[in-house]
Amino acid sequence: MHEFQLRVYYEDTDLAGIVYYANYLKFIERGRSEWVRSVGVDQAALKRDHGIVFAVRRVEADYLRSAKFDDLLTVRTDLVAETGARITLDQSIWRGEERLFEAQVVLVCMTEEGSVARLPAEIRRKLAPPVH
What we know:
Layout: E1 2-7, H1 21-38, H2 43-50, E2 52-63, E3 72-82, E4 86-95, E5 98-111, H3 121-127
Antiparallel strand pairs: 1-3, 2-5, 3-4, 4-5
């Protein structure tokens, strides 16, 4: 499991002082980007060298509790499955021990032209969970 911390800023909230619902998607995007970086995948190099980018295909989200201005949040990212061209992740947002948001995200690998592409073997190895 990968964890990424962030602080809720005033700009993230609505008139009621709670995090605007669409910002949770931004927060988990940051968590995914940091997860990919943490396993050693350089997305700019992946695009430059292989012409491949990640695109969100599907998000199923549940909003459980509200985050508020100045909360310190943790985005957790877990790899569920990876095939040659698809990655499924479970992501959640926590305030301490309280789960506020959870989502399952399906990413697809695509060429810059929008066609589905297979991930190179060396990238798949980096994304694979460690064997115990």
